[in-house]
Structure formats: structure tokens, C-alpha cells
From TrEMBL, chains A, B:
GO terms for molecular function: DNA binding. It holds the Pfam family Response_reg. GO terms for biological process: phosphorelay signal transduction system; regulation of DNA-templated transcription. PANTHER family: TRANSCRIPTIONAL REGULATORY PROTEIN NARL-RELATED, TWO-COMPONENT RESPONSE REGULATOR. The modification 4-aspartylphosphate is found at D57. Gene3D superfamilies: 3.40.50.2300. This is DNA-binding response regulator. Residues 7-127 form the Response regulatory domain. It comes from Parafrankia soli.
Length: 221, 221
DNA sequence: GCCAACATCAGGGGTAGCCCTGAAACCGGG
DNA sequence: CCCGGTTTCAGGGCTACCCCTGATGTTGGC
């Protein structure tokens, strides 16, 4: 009952891997309309063939550049309806925000070694081609981490922000407790909670109280 | 052999004192071209008579205003070559920075009760009229105190600033020692020295490490 | 109504960061 | 040449700040 099969363009500089994926996809009723090995080819193929989805391998270290990611960003801007599924060995965090831009429709990012099975991969291609969003859990973790890096104070509770504000004024735990009417133990409890929430693990080289104050000051310009 | 005597304008609301100073200066080959008793008179006299120097008494508490000081600031801005010698009973610290502004050429500030002798006073008038700078030692003390309040880091040694810079990055004493090749004990020694130099007494309500970091950050915008 | 998150606090323990004194080496200036 | 300031460090002590677990009451959402 399939009227038109999903049209796929494959981008990968490794011929073998490309062929393998193409064969795999065609076994699952996809139509691989083009295979390219570099960013220019990808651009041209998408413009000429108008596929439903581009499956792009980001092959970077140590040889290649980030051209896969860069052209992915470009493609999403130029072809809003195009699905883009990225495959990578590593997690390239730098381009994630710009890649998703405003919306996360028709985009995917999978880590190769974490794709458990063929079914999961095919499922991902289908979902992305249909405008869905498929992200490796690790990618999700990293993005929320990045968000909380942008405004780490939003992860704190109101009370914790009060305590941190006083810490940032150079007050001692004793003084904080006196001002907020808390026992010293409770102040310590809040301080500990602040540390963990700000992602400040107890490194021997860090003075976490100062680091917490610094993040607080940065968030308040 | 004096071609033109130094031309002086005297400003003081007390007639007796004014006359006494005028007589004293004329005994020492100065030419007192004008005597005034208020700020307006001073302004007009300087504009009309173009003296080399204005000797101004700041007569304030409890009656008068700070008009002497204010007009002194104004005069220095309007007449860059005019010497201005201020006489005061008290030390008025508030106007000192704005009084000196960019340069301290042709300006003087003496405390009456600390003028030891007539020779010293005459010498001061001469120096200021010639574009020099005469300041009571107490004034100097107060200015450097103000400067060290404005930039407390200048009171630190080079090594202490290195340590404080690392503290301001949230590093622990251990990490600081490792980076600067110091034993932990030496780091502690520097930290203690930084505290005392920044005037951070061991108050139970203060977290001095944070306070030291804050002053460091303030000094670096 | 229950569960999760928050806020409060206690008990009990470790140690980094602080205190003080003292001392040695160096260096520049009166 | 000695003297004050800087830099380096040790010994010895104290406690504020940190860790962990666990308990209680409150709140808000499903």
C-alpha cells in the first residue's frame, strides 16, 4: 500500500559504510536516491534530488573537518522540510544549539556505538523523515547540561538562591543562618545542595564555595 | 632683579586675617592685587586681575559653606595656569580628588595649625605660584589612603596578587601550591597576608576568602 | 490519597583552611 | 653594612566548612 517510498540521500566519505547503510535501508523499503562523499556533493544532491531525508555521517577526528555538521546546519536552514539524521562516533556539543535552532522538527542525532539494533536505526530514519525528532539520550543530557550552564541558577530552589546570594556577599555560614533564621546544620545542608545542583563535584583542586559564588555573579552580570 | 612681582589674590571672609596675610606677603615681595570675602568676589577678581595665584581660606564649620573649595575647583578648571593655595582649619577629604583632577600642578593644600613658620608659608605660596604642588603631609596620607581604598590590590605584593588571582578562579590552596610550586604552608602564609593587607579582620560573620575574591573582581571590573 | 520535591534539623566524622610563632634566605636602599 | 620588606617554609592547634545518613513536616501535582 506504500504509494511513494521515503527518498534518502546518504552522505559519508567511507564508501563501504555508505554502501552498507544503503543496502540496509533498501531492504526496509527506503529508496536511496543518492550517495555522496563530501559537503559539496551533499548540497548538490539535496538541491537536485529533493529527498525526504539526508542521513549524514560526521567523520571528523583526526582526519576530516566538521563539514558534515556545518552542512547539516546549512541544509536545515535552506530546506525546512528536509529531515536530517546525523550519525557520529563522538558527541560534538558545539554545534548542537545552532543545529536545532528554533525548532527540533525533522532532526536526529545518534551516536554510532549506541545504536542498539537495526530496527532502532530504521525506526529513527522513519521518524526523522516524517518530521520527528530522534536524539540519543546522551545528546539530551548534554543539551540540558548546556541549558543549565547558561542559567545554572534556575536549577536552584528559591531558598538555595537566598543562601547563595548571601554566600556571594562573603558571609559565613553562621551569618547566613542568623540572617535567614536557620540552624547552622540547615545552612550546611543548603550549601551542599547548591554544590551538587551546580554540578560542582568535590575536586581537590577546587574551592567550590568560591566557584559557586563565581557562577552566581556571572548569572547576575 | 625681580622683573614682575608675583601677583596674589586673597580670599577670606575674615578681614583681619586677610589683612595680616596681605601684609605678610607684601613684606616678602609679593603683590597683593586683590582681596575678596566670598566666592563671587573671588571669581570676578581672578577674571579681572589675572593673578598668578589665589590664596583661599576655606572657612566652613560651623557657619560657612564649602564655597571656598567649590570655587577653587571651578577656578582650576577655568584657569589652568592659575595657582591655587588652599588654607583650612580642617581636612576636607571629599573634594580632594576632584580638586586635583588630572594633574596636581599649581595646587596646594595646607592645614593652618600645621604651618610651622612664616618662611614655610611664603615658600609654599612661591612654589604654588610657580606651578608646583604643596600638600600637607596629612593630606598626602589621606589621599593614599583613599587610593588604596579605591585600588586595594596595589597594597599587595606581586606574589600575593598571583595567589589571589588563582583564588578568584575558585582554586583550592592545594591547586594554587601545585601551580606556583609552593608548599601548602606557604600558600596559607600568602593567603593570611592577603587577608590582613586587604583589611579583612577575622570576623565570625565573614567568609574572608570570598570577600578577598570579591575585592579582586571589583578591581578588575 | 500518594509520591516527589522541598525545607528543616540532628548526629557524627574528616579535613581544608584558618590561626600563631618563628626562622631562614634574599634583596634593595639609607 | 645592617635593616626593612619579601618570599619561603615548619610546627602545632582550632574550627568552620565540608562529607554522609536519616528523620520530620509541608507542599503540590497526578
Amino acid at each position: 500500500m506504500r504509494v511513494t517510498p521515503t527518498r534518502v540521500v546518504l552522505a559519508d566519505d567511507a564508501l563501504l559504510f555508505r554502501q552498507a547503510i544503503a543496502w540496509l535501508l533498501e531492504q526496509h523499503d527506503f529508496q536511496v536516491v543518492g550517495q555522496v562523499s563530501d559537503a559539496d556533493g551533499l548540497r548538490n544532491a539535496v538541491s537536485a534530488l529533493r529527498p525526504d531525508i539526508a542521513v549524514i555521517d560526521i567523520r571528523m577526528p583526526p582526519t576530516g573537518r566538521l563539514e558534515g555538521l556545518e552542512s547539516a546546519v546549512e541544509l536545515r536552514a535552506r530546506h525546512p522540510d528536509l529531515g536530517v539524521l546525523l550519525l557520529s562516533h563522538y558527541l560534538e556539543s558545539h554545534y548542537l544549539p545552532v543545529l536545532f535552532g528554533a525548532n527540533a522538527r525533522g532532526v536526529g542525532y545518534l551516536l554510532k556505538e549506541r545504536v542498539t539494533g537495526i530496527e532502532a536505526f530504521v525506526e529513527a530514519v522513519t521518524r526523522v523523515a516524517a518530521g520527528g525528532c530522534v536524539l540519543d539520550p546522551e545528546v539530551v543530557d548534554l543539551m540540558i547540561a548546556a541549558r543549565s550552564r547558561r542559567d545554572p541558577l534556575h536549577t536552584l530552589t528559591a531558598r538555595e538562591r537566598e543562601v547563595l546570594a548571601l554566600m556571594a556577599e562573603g558571609r559565613s555560614n553562621q551569618a547566613i543562618g542568623a540572617q535567614l533564621v536557620l540552624t547552622p546544620k540547615t545552612v550546611e545542608s543548603h550549601v551542599r545542595s547548591i554544590f551538587t545542583r551546580l554540578g560542582l563535584a568535590p575536586e581537590p583542586d577546587d574551592h567550590r564555595r568560591v566557584l559557586a559564588v563565581l557562577t552566581y555573579l556571572r548569572a547576575h552580570h
